[in-house]
Amino acid sequence: MSGGFRVDPDALVRCGTDIEGLRGKADDVLTKASEGDVAPISWGLLGQMTGLQTKYDLLAAEFELFARMAADGITHLNDRLRASAAAYRDSDANTGHALSRVEKDLFGGGS
């Protein structure tokens, strides 16, 4: 087949494993983000009056959500890469079996 492409399923699995290795770092960021709490007294009267604490709390909650989505996305990407590798392996195996059957039908036995 001219202009075709090849996929190494093992390379997809290795890539997924490498990406999954980042999950620990993402979980660390998530843990630190969820532990970050600034006491109201830290904002002082001016900070409390101007709503800085509320703004900070909203930003921190958004960042925590982002960190959770990033961590979950890492696992999802690893799962998808592994599923793709399995699909390529299955496709290769099915094609090989089909070609063996065709060879047997055409040449009476095959290899």
Structure write-up:
The protein has 111 residues and is an all-alpha fold. The protein has one domain. It has 4 helices and no strands. The chain has helices at residues 9-20, 23-35, 44-49, 52-107. α1 (9-20) packs antiparallel against α4 and α2 packs antiparallel against α4.
Give a quick rundown of the structure:
It contains 4 helices and no strands. It is 78% helix and 0% strand.
**What's the number of extended β-strand segments?**
0
Strand-residue proportion: under 5%
**Helix count from the secondary structure assignment:** 4
- Order of helices and strands, N to C? HHHH
Mean pLDDT: 89
Strand count, sense and barrel status of the largest sheet are: none
Percentage of residues in helical conformation: over 70%
Structural class: mainly alpha
From the alpha-carbon coordinates, what is the Rg to the nearest angstrom? Answer: 26 Å
| Principal-axis shape | rod-shaped
Number of domain modules: 1
Contiguous runs where pLDDT drops below 50 for at least 5 residues: none
Give the N-terminus to C-terminus distance in angstroms: 22 Å
Q: Topology, please?
A:
Blueprint: H1 9-20, H2 23-35, H3 44-49, H4 52-107
Which terms would index this structure?
mainly alpha; 0% strand; rod-shaped
